[in-house]
Design a protein that fits this description.
alpha+beta, single chain, 152 residues
Length: 152
């Protein structure tokens, strides 16, 4: 993906990686599991993946490390995703346009319609984390093939 990036865009690529979880990431995931009812698949992911940073794919796509999710939780609390269930969504990432991805209490992934969590409105983008990661993969594949990242 980054081989032709500078030639195509005129500046060097940023950070585009899936970083493996280190001991601190795993400890943060363990704490997250103790403090919340985070979806099991998110906790499983955080045992292996530290974070995802694709700065140059479209406007960018980011899956935050467990430590950042904990920090967000401490500073802002849980996110009410407007479902009938308990308001316990967790902000887990964003796109480069400022829209925020939230893992809902039942495991679905939602995206804010605006770059703010003040009176947010959400769109469900995936039924679970696996489907969300598959959508991210499609975005990366489309961008790598022709530069069109689509929209997620």
């Amino acid at each position: 993906m980054t081989g032709e990036f500078e030639h195509r865009h005129g500046f060097p690529p940023g950070t585009n990686q899936v970083r493996l979880a280190d001991h601190d990431d795993q400890a943060a995931a363990h704490t997250l599991a103790q403090l919340t009812t985070a979806p099991a698949d998110l906790l499983t992911l955080y045992k292996s993946v530290g974070d995802v940073s694709w700065e140059d794919v479209g406007n960018g796509y980011f899956l935050d490390p467990a430590g950042d999710v904990l920090l967000w939780l401490q500073e802002h609390g849980v996110v009410d995703v407007g479902t009938d269930q308990e308001a316990c969504g967790l902000g887990i990432g964003s796109n480069g346009g400022g829209l925020i991805y939230v893992a809902g209490p039942e495991g679905a992934v939602y995206r804010t319609r605006t770059a703010s969590l003040d009176n947010p409105e959400f769109d469900k983008v995936a039924d679970d984390l696996r489907q969300f990661l598959e959508l991210l993969e499609r975005v990366l594949t489309g961008f790598s093939a022709g530069g069109d990242a689509g929209c997620l």
